[in-house]
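Posting for a labmate who doesn't have an account.
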Amino acid sequence: MINKLRNYIYKNNFSSSVQDYIYRDYFPILLYKFVNWLIDDAIKKNIETLYFLSRDAYIFMEVAKIICEKCNIKIELKYLYCSRISLRTPILWMIDEDEAMDYIFSVSTNITLNKILNRTFILNDDICKICNELKINEENRDRLLSKKQVSYYKKIFSKNNNFKEKLFNQSKQKYNNCAKYFLQEGLFSNKKFAIVDSGWTGSMQKNISTILKKDVNVGYYYGLYDLPDYHKSNNYFSYYFSPNNNILRKVFFNNNIFEYMCSAPHPMTIGYQKLDDNYIPIFEQVNSENYKKINENICKLLNSVDSLFNNEINVNCREIEFFKKIMIFPDTKTINYFENGMFSDDMNESRDSKLICNLTNKEIRKNFILNKIFRKIKDDFIKESLWVEGEIGLQRNKNILIKRYIFYKIVKYTKQVIINIMKGIKCR
């Protein structure tokens, strides 16, 4: 099966540009199907308001506006400015200390101690003093860490009272403004609402529930690999794949590329502040040169969605074939289109890494199953990429490498599904 697929995909050439193929021809159909599905379900559940979470759901909301207008659907659509870090920091003082430390010291691609400490919002002078107390120099703070090293730092920082005091003080300050922003946006009202996001682990829904001190009854997601609250799995609704099924859909998918394709034309939200009588988001200070391209892509996509209602596009499009072509078996044109895209899978979402980091052939092989198991035992650092399939597409022996990597993903997601079924997850 893999051989047949590889021969077809790698030899395929686009008749149009990669940008047109994605944003004009196929991605609009996929997003239309997803958003139409969630609106239909929301109507059945008598949902009054849909909150689209920034930044991934920006484009979902724009598609929803078109559907609601064309079909005369009366449901309130609101855009909620937030991010993993803007929601996690305010709840640290409210949850168990070990869980708070797990949040701060969670592992992401190419993690360093400085990346971890940036999640705390503790002033740099205070961070320097704490690191001096712990005899950690600046050079060590910028070194790439293995999972075992992250666990070591979690252990020593968890024992430092000065660090914990400043961390939880920051958390309380952040919570106050975040809760008032949520109050302003109607999240504390008695209206029946749902949230909409790209997905992956459902942690945003859990964090919003913690801030509100009540459960978010419904969360709609494009896909979910896992859940934070297994006993509340009936509150999570997934369109394309779920924690307890759809193994092959997960294998032939890359969530980093999907998020990149859903880029919003505004920076990450890092907190909230009061301006006159309103609470507004605080944005990360970044270079905005890329927003012109993002706006072009969004306009192209929305024009195509609008055309669906004039029967100009065939909606019988299989998602898995599109994702295989773009994400798993990319040709040179596709890799060139994405390779300089800036992204981050870290909770601070700072987009400080390229999707393609030019792994060597040897570094790619370290990401395969036997090598990963062996190196975990040895605690060797494994250089990772946000898009391994794209890295493989640049190699001469890509045909062999992609089959090995697909095998690794099959084993990984099969194991994950079995564990989730044993936990009793009932996500739909």
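Reply:
Got it, the structure tokens are right above this. Residues 258 and 327 are 8 Å apart (CA to CA).
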